[in-house]
Amino acid sequence: MGNRCGEIIWHPVKGGHRVLFLYDGGAFDSSRFTLELKVWDYDECAVCGKHIPAKTLCHVTEPQQPYVLLCADCYDRYVVSKSHVA
Asked: How far apart, in whole angstroms, are the C-alpha atoms of residue 18 and residue 30?
């Protein structure tokens, strides 16, 4: 899968925001960051914005391409339907 390092999610909380960074398994400064298991539990379709829960069917671009995530509906609508056009 493409490099997703640097992806973040902003959640509004009282007095500010809680910012989640996607952890790629590398080194991090434990005085500034805390690891939380299973906190990144969904992604969003790049076309329609639909939440795609973890471990749900979705489609991503080929390796070495810009990262694009599509839900199954958008994949069928924009990729499969165009591949059947003669």
From this structure: 17
User: Among residues 45, 39, 44, which one has the least CA distance to residue 23?
Assistant: 39
| Gap between the Cα atoms of 59 and 69, Å rounded | 6
Q: Give the up-direction half-sphere exposure of residue 41: CA atoms within 13 A in the CB hemisphere.
A: 4
**Tens-place pLDDT, residues 6-24:** 677 787 899 999 888 877 7
Can you tell me the distance from the alpha carbon of 32 to that of 68, in angstroms, rounded to the nearest whole number? 30
Residue 25 near residue 42, CB atoms below 8 Å: no
- Collapsing DSSP states into helix, strand and coil, what is residue 51? strand
- Distances in Å between the Cα of 23 and the Cα atoms of 65, 75, 77, 82 are 20, 26, 31, 35
Q: How confident is the model at residue 61 (pLDDT cuts 50, 70, 90)?
A: confident
State if pTM tops 0.90: no
